[in-house]
Each structure stands twice: as structure tokens, then as C-alpha cells.
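Quick one: Arginine repressor from Enterococcus saigonensis, C-alpha cells please.
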Amino acid sequence: MRKKERHRLITRLLTEKNIQKQEDFVDLLKSRGVVVTQATISRDIKELKLIKVPSQEGGYRYSLPAETAEDVGAKLEKMLKDAFVSVDQMEKFVVLKTLPGNASAIANLIEKRFQDNLFSVLNDDDTVLMITRTEAAAQDLRREFLRFL
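--- reply ---
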């Protein structure tokens, strides 16, 4: 398994399980057919910038760091510069076309960055459909995406 895929799996495990030790990561990954060493997990923890937070069961558990709005905005801008194809707006709908394979990650960042103005976000492999609360919000969103370029 490649590092990027392993990182995605680790991130998913963090949302599903209460992981308190590096050995917990090793065991959970092994149960999913991914054999890693504790040293590999240690490097992954550093690269993912995982933190330890108090656990409801007592002790501490690993968690993803909270992203700031600036972090999300910077990631979104970078992804749009790399994967943007087009953007269009009609009434409360904004459609963002991306290079194949990028829409899901971009949709996730859009939801984090613009959550107050969005009613819903849907995506497939290369398209993000945003439904805004107002037509003015849709116009602002379209302008914002064009500004990122």
C-alpha cells in the first residue's frame, strides 16, 4: 500500500476508532491487511501532524489537528490552480468542473471554507455542484473561485 493510501486509511480510522497508542494503529492496519512497523506509524503520525487529545474513556487519543480557515483556503486555492476546468452559475446553483479525480477533495474543502453560504454540496469524479442559500451567495462563490485562479 502506498503512503498516500495508508494516510487516507489512518485518517479514516481516527474518525472510527479511539486510538491511544501507535501499536493500536499497527494492529488496526494489520486487521485490514496492511502490514506496517511502529517506525512507519511514527513517521505517518509526524507527517499527518496528529495530536493527542483527552479521550472520553480516559487517557489520551490521537486526533487530526483542527484546520484553520486559512489552511483550508490555501489548500483550496492550490487544488483549484492545479485542477480547475470551469465554473458556471445559475440562480442558486454553482457548478465547478475539475480534472478527473479531484472533485471529491475540492468539494470537502469547499464545504469547510464556505459552509455558512451553502445549503448542500454534491460531487462526482470531476464535478462539484454547490447549492447556495441565496442567489447572491452563488454569485459571490463563483467570483471567489475565479479569484483563486
